Amino acid sequence: LARQRLRRLLGEQAGVELVAEAHDVEAATRHIARHRPDVVFLDVRMPGGDPVDVLAALALDPPPFVVFVTAHA
User: Fold this and answer.
1) Are 65 and 39 in contact (CB under 8 A)?
2) Which of 5, 25, 72, 73 could lock 49 by a disulfide, CB 3.0 to 4.6 Å apart?
3) Is 1 helix (H, G, I), strand (E, B) or coil?
4) Greatest CA separation found in the chain?
5) How far, in Å, CA of 26 to CA of 66, rounded?
6) Is 39 exposed, middle or buried (0-12, 13-18, 19+ CB in 10 A)?
7) What one-character-per-residue DSSP string does 12-72 give?
8) Long-range contacts of the stretch 27-30 (C-beta < 8 A, 24+)
9) Average pLDDT over the chain, rounded to an integer
10) Which residues of 54-70 are buried (b: 16+ CB within 10 A; e: fewer)?
């Protein structure tokens, strides 16, 4: 539900293109390496690790801007 809402909110913004979604660290790392987005939104609780694991697995220069999000209290 949280990803759906974030997708909707971002979709309302001019100039924003959603290139991929991922449900775990492995998929997030793969999509970021493939698409090289300017900005990524990473949940602070991800199956398979956390956002730091995603960023550590990438060797992008420059790295994307990261926004940490969560639906947890």
Assistant:
1) yes
2) 25
3) coil
4) 33
5) 17
6) exposed
7) TSTT-------SSHHHHHHHHHHH--SEEEEESSBTTB-HHHHHHH---SSPPEEEEE-S-
8) 28/54, 29/54, 29/57, 29/58
9) 90
10) bbeeeeeeeebeeeeee
CB neighbours (10 Å) of residue 13? 8
pTM over the 0.90 mark: no
Amino acid at residue number 27: A
Both structure tokens of 37: 């987005």
DSSP 73: -
Q: Cα-flanking dihedrals φ and ψ of residue 62, to 5°?
A: -85, 155
Q: Could you tell me how many residues make up the chain? A: 73
CB 21 within 8 A of CB 30: no
